[in-house]
Specification:
GO terms for molecular function: sulfotransferase activity. With 340 residues, the protein is an alpha/beta fold. It has helices spanning 24-33, 55-67, 85-96, 113-116, 120-126, 128-132, 151-155, 167-181, 184-190, 193-201, 210-223, 233-238, 240-250, 257-261, 264-271, 274-278, 281-285, 312-326, and strands at residues 36-40, 43-48, 51-54, 75-79, 139-142, 159-164, 228-232. 46% of the residues lie in helices and 10% in strands. The longest helix is centred in the middle third of the chain and has 15 residues, at 167-181.
């Protein structure tokens, strides 16, 4: 995969500083100063400021840290990959734009949610003006942990919606995503589930460690309740209507009594449901500008699918590991029971 121009310099002690770089030697210097896990070909994960950032996004992450200016009206959707990002993009876009479009004409019906909500980590550096020129409120997304967010995102009045997911399901979803990214046989050979599992237990996965990611936003959400809404995929699945209402309130556009009476909340939940989105033509046959098939974002959409892939010993091990890491934080995930 093509490595784009890095615009940050290494901090000699930690390899994580953000300064202007002017030449390729410095780019190489930055990369060589960071711990690296090679995945395949020239695709690696770099440990940047404590987070395993995929090489294709590293430049973009450094770029947003340096250049992105958040607005008070921004809505930032943050997540570790495979935690419900696509779902939340659809829900937030629809909730926020419901007075602009009739639900029967909402652009979600013709565009994948990822096209409607730009992913800052790669699109800001590639096309900064397209995001700078968006009218407010902008809905944007990122996979960076809380500690790596651009400064202005944290200090201004922008709102952050964070979604996470049971780590077992997240891992299995992530593994399938890797299989979908590259020819299955190659990925299977290089990355059998056992290997991806072992790496994740060491914290090595896209934007991992998982526990650091969830804890960063969890702690921040407890300190700044009006600014950060912390959600779990399983809770949405259990009662999506409740969360649609909660999201609208958090985003400053609560449903009116009349809207509630007209069933708008339920209609939005249905519109953004897995089955509905998956079966839209655009998500069956369309592709993102990157060439990525839209269908890869809609696999099963079920809670507990990991039980079909992980052995009991793998599940127990990961559950215990995450429990230990989250110990004392107040954050827990419901257990996924393995059927016998
Ligand atoms: P991303 O980080 O690459 O954007 P993300 O959307 O966070 O991916 O996660 C994809 C998961 O959400 C997939 O889970 P699975 O592999 O276990 O099936 C995908 O199926 C699921 N998903 C996508 N859209 C929805 C939706 N509308 N409702 C519920 N789950 C969904």
């Amino acid at each position: 995969m093509h490595m784009e121009k890095i615009i940050a310099s290494p901090n000699s002690s930690s390899g994580s500083g953000v300064e202007e770089l002017t030449n390729n030697d410095n780019i190489e210097e930055l990369l060589s100063s960071l711990p690296c896990e090679k995945l395949w070909d020239n695709y690696s994960l770099y440990l940047y400021q404590g987070c395993w950032v995929p090489s294709i996004f590293l430049n973009g992450v450094i770029y947003i840290q340096k250049h992105f200016q958040a607005r008070d009206t921004d809505i930032i959707l943050a997540s570790i990959p495979k935690s419900g990002t696509t779902w939340l993009k659809a829900l937030i876009f629809t909730i926020v734009n419901r007075s602009r479009y009739a639900l029967s004409e909402i652009p979600l019906l013709a565009s994948n949610p990822h096209e409607l909500v730009p992913f800052l980590d790669n699109s800001y550096m590639k096309n900064r003006s397209s995001i700078d020129n968006l009218s407010s409120p902008r809905i944007l997304s990122t996979h960076v942990p809380f500690a790596l967010l651009p400064h202005s995102t944290v200090t201004c009045n922008s709102r952050i919606v964070y979604t996470c997911r049971n780590p077992l399901d997240q891992l299995v979803s992530y593994w399938h995503f890797l299989l979908a990214l590259y020819p299955e046989q190659t990925t299977m050979r290089l990355f059998p589930l056992e290997k991806v599992f072992e790496m994740a237990c060491q914290g090595v996965q896209f934007y991992g460690p998982f526990w650091k990611h969830v804890l960063g936003y969890w702690k921040a959400s407890l300190e700044q309740t009006g600014k950060i809404l912390f959600l779990k995929y399983e809770d949405l699945e259990e009662d999506v209507n409740f969360h649609v209402k909660r999201l609208a309130e958090f985003l400053g556009c609560p449903f009116s009594v009349d809207e509630e009476r007209r069933g708008v909340i339920k209609a939005i939940s249905k519109l953004c449901s897995f089955d509905h989105l998956k079966n839209l033509e655009v998500n069956k046959s369309g592709k993102l500008p990157s060439g990525h098939a839209n269908s890869t974002f809609f696999r099963k959409g079920k809670v507990g699918d990991s039980r079909n892939y992980l052995t009991s010993s793998m599940s127990n091990h990961l559950e215990k590991l995450i429990e230990d890491k989250l110990n004392g934080s107040g954050l827990t995930f419901k257990k996924i029971i393995k059927s016998s």
